[in-house]
Amino acid sequence: MTATVTKVQSNGQCVVLRPGNTNCAGCGMSLGLQWLEQALDHEPVTLAIPACCGIVTAGAFPTSAYGVPVAATTFASSPAVASGIATINNLNGDDHPVICWAGDGGTYDIGIATLSAAAERNENMIYICYDNEIYGNTGGQRSSATPEGVATTTSPKGKTEPKKDIMAIMAAHRIPYAATLSLAHREDFFRKVRTARQTKGFRFLLMLSPCPTGWKSEPEEGVDLIRCAVGCGIFPVYEVFDGERYRINVRPDGTPIEHYADHQRRYKSVCLDKTFLERSIAVQWRRLTALESMFPADKETL
Amino acid sequence: MPRALVTGNHAAGHALALAGEANRIARGCCGGAYPITPQTEIIEFLRAFPFTKGRIIPVESEHSAMGACIGASLAGARAFTASSSNGLAYMVENIFAAGYYRLPIVLIAVNRTLGPPWNIWVDQGDSLMFRDAPWIQFYVESHQDLVDTILLAFRVAEDQRVLLPAAVALDGFVTSHAQMVVDLPDQESVDRFLPPCRVPHRLRYDHPATVGGLTWPRETQRHRRDLQEAMDCVPEVLAEAINEFEAVFGRRPVGALTAEQTQDADEVLIACNTMAQTLRNVVADRRKRGENVGMIRLKMFRPFPREALRTAIGSAVRVGVLDRNHSAGSGGIFWQEVAATLQARPDVLVQDYLVGLGGGDVTPEHVSEIVDDLRRRESSGEPLWQEAAL
Asked: Model-level pTM greater than 0.95?
């Protein structure tokens, strides 16, 4: 039932993630949750976390590594549960953020109907997907966020289908704000969390989250890997306002794809088709730059 | 108290709205709305109701309808929703979750046959599907019973000794769509009957718990025992609530069951919902003929009122159970419970009658045949299928 119970505040400030959590070394969530807390200036938040590594983070009853109230929801339910929490908090004059913190399985796969519905209703919440492109909690199975070519325990010869474009799906809901978060770009990360905080309605943030056990990468290389992912263009850093105005925040810098892929056995264990990867990145960027030039964020109306 | 001619669904909508509105002085109310025949009018009613401090969320599925209730209840609100049949099946993961979280959510289950094959008529297999979830379950036989039981359900569910969700089940179409005259309580009386909803483990910044996180086996078993202990409190809390109900509304609702003409009965038949009304007429008819037949109308299925049932059966030697549900490979679900309750009474014969599944009319003729069969019996047999009318 209710897990507990150390006092939330240190120096009157809210701590989202406390020491002593069960995250793996090098888990993207550890940095992501701390940056979230700092970007929100230690403001109290309520988390709704579905079945995923993010709820294992809390540790076992009666302890909780989270310094904020958390609803541990069923796998597909976090946006529905958060809708109820936000509704009641708002009706009672509490406007502190209600945040869904969910993995890619809960976001791209089992929870997408719930997510889509909460976005369509423009519920007053922030949804953050920490995307490690794998069912990490169960030991590394493919999800629809797994990129094409990547080996997982359920795609041992490499996934044959491309990664789902969740940002395009969320933008198509015309939500007020959608953005991608890079753990290698702190200022951009903080600004986007604050933009999300200042926006009303449904806000969606997608964070590429290093997973050493799933990616078969070195724990200390996580942030470097994200920098390479942004540099080579496989993870575009951009934001979409009202589903119609685009801004690219960080452009690819010509980092070779190998700098990203060769440091992860999930890519290396299968015969990596470098040309194919580069082609799919190029297509992604052609689309994104076209959208940005046709529908720039700086112009209110077209 | 205004009297009104309303459908069962609108009666349920009124009762939910009154209960929700009564919590305007506290954290407010919230529900999830998703349509399915035959309960749709309930959620339509709720969506149209001008709550002072509440919101009915038009979700995309029953799973999310209960999800929204869970969130609202975790935030300290009074929460409720309604569903039927496959909608309840789709909701069932969160039905269990709501109970395991110990949230006093009220769910209206308008009983409808589970499909496929598709059939929109009454059958209790849907709400009995989650009989093993930590939910109080009531089965009501009339519109007035429905309104009163919904209000009682909130009162019992939210009692700090209980803190369990409660389902109120009614017959699809037979009750949900028929119109009956009911006394609809005024808001002021409901305000008096339902104190502000208090969820002691609600999400709070000054007490940042992870509600529903990981537990080890020992804590999990303890949690299950806590659920049983909470269930064990229900009969007493319900009895108190009925007294309070009578004091406020001037009317006394039925409790866990009613024993009717059982004192000197040789045969007792057990039924719930509208089948109990038919049974009541048949029993009255048999009594006129000098037959010592009695009946028990079972209203509360969880917690199962074993003590009250044993007492009510008294000196009867033959017990017949009417089951409008079927557990494949076993038999009727009410029969299983009754048989287990009477295991220490080898002198009592317990016979199951599977009747009216898929919404077939259970007519006085059907019930009469069942009474005849029971009276002839020397021993009990396998559950007996009573052919349904069209």
From this structure: yes
